[in-house]
Design brief:
Elements (H helix, E strand, L loop, with lengths): L28 H22 L3 H17 L10 H26 L15 H14 L3 H12 L4 H8 L3 H20 L3
């Protein structure tokens, strides 16, 4: 009787035994890095519309990249990488605002509201009034308007990013625009 031959244990280098092990599932590091490089400015702009300080915006965008990078195997469709980055930027901006609000509650010292005189000019004044009006909106209205008009996303993309229905996006958007009109037309 011939001796039984032991079963062959597949090696990681052996793509013939398990072809699915040769192709890693999820977004590749190169694709994620290229998406980040290509859309860094737009992601920074998105964070800037939700937050009010440049350093925090840069931190949020970099943290979003790190988080999506570490979870890249869960991003099965590489076409959705940008959507994951945007959603992570929005979520991290929310968290930063929550921490800031908590810090303000704990500290009695308020943060300055006005920009320095060196940053002046007519365009800056208009931008400041828009930002002030945006801050007066409800959180959801502000998020919908920022994503829809400043990040140039469709209503369906906004709904997916925020995890709300398309009807809610439309309702928050129309109410937000109406509130902005009132705020911008009001005398200073």
């Amino acid at each position: 009787m011939p001796a039984a031959r032991p079963a062959r244990i597949p090696d990681q280098r052996d793509g013939a035994e398990h072809p699915e092990s040769a192709v890693a599932a999820g977004t590749t590091v190169d694709h994620l890095t290229e998406t980040y490089r290509t859309h860094y400015r737009s992601l920074l702009g998105l964070a800037a519309l939700l937050l009010d300080d440049t350093a925090s915006c840069e931190d949020v965008v970099q943290e979003a990249f790190i988080r999506v990078h570490s979870a890249r195997k869960r991003v099965r469709d590489p076409e959705k990488t940008l959507a994951y980055l945007r959603q992570t930027v929005v979520n991290l901006s929310r968290s930063a605002l929550r921490r800031r609000i908590l810090g303000l509650k704990l500290l009695s010292k308020p943060m300055p509201d006005m920009a320095s005189a060196e940053e002046g000019a007519y365009d800056q004044l208009e931008r400041d009034s828009l930002i002030k009006a945006m801050k007066g909106l409800q959180r959801r209205q502000r998020e919908v308007l920022v994503l829809r008009y400043f990040a140039d996303m469709t209503e369906a993309q906004v709904a997916e990013t925020l995890g709300i229905s398309l009807g809610s996006v439309k309702a928050y958007g129309s109410r937000g625009i109406a509130a902005l009109r009132l705020a911008m037309e009001a005398p200073a």
